[in-house]
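User: Hey, quick favor. My workstation is busy. Could you predict this chain's structure for me?
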Amino acid sequence: MSTMFKNFVVLCLLYSVNATHFITKINETVHHNVILEINKPWDPEMYAKKVILSNATGVITSQTFQLLTELQELYLVHSSIEYIHQDAFKTAPKLENIQFSYNSKLPFLTNDIFKNCKNLKKLVIGNNKFIEGISDNLCSGLQNLTHVEITKESKIPKKLTNNFFRNSKSLESIKLHFSNITSIDSDAFKELKKLNFLSLVENEVNEIGPGAFGNENLLRLYLSWNKLKYFSGEELQDLRNLEKLDISFNPLIELDVERIKRNAPNLKSLSVAQTSLSCNKKKEFMKKGNLSFHVHIDRNELEKCEA
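Assistant: No problem, here it is.
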């Protein structure tokens, strides 16, 4: 065999190895009906940065993802999981995005499950049929977490305290929707100095402690479709840069506009549509030429007041 031919064979083999390596490491894979076994690594054969598990069953242990060392995004959907070990994601150090959605069953979700996700930036939990529970410090101590979204999860703590997000100081956006939250403690969000967007739409909130949201970077606050009857303005302590406040679709009967102005001096938009405020109060909003922000009230409401 000539030297030239031997070199050609070697090059072909190298190309074959590299080609296989390229094929098995792709950006995204979807896997259906996976059975996750206890203390056994799951081998997807294709090692992607983004993995979608649909209709998976079984348990997630400290060994489940140990072959997926490049994993950055994990989506668990339409699945039934019996147990998630506290070190479940320890072997996936690059994980940045976790989403649990539309699952039929999930175990109790604790902070311990996510504490090893040192690079976690986004956590989404929503529309799951059954979760055994959600700990009251679920999102605490996650230093790189910037975005949290929890939707239609009745097991979230009814009273939100600063323990839920403690020391997760990189948070910029929080959405907690349709989850039956009833009260927000004073200082619940105060230490989240980078938070600029907060939405607590469609809950059962009837009480908010003074200074619950207090930080200078919060720009938009959505509290619509809750059970608030009184809004003193003290809830907005230290929100010097708040631009938009939406408290529409609440059974409001008392609202202190002067305190809102004082605590949120840069407010540009206040939405109070479909509340229980008196007609006199609604008319008063429309007449106040000294307000530095625009008040949004449903035109039909004003017409009814004039009738």
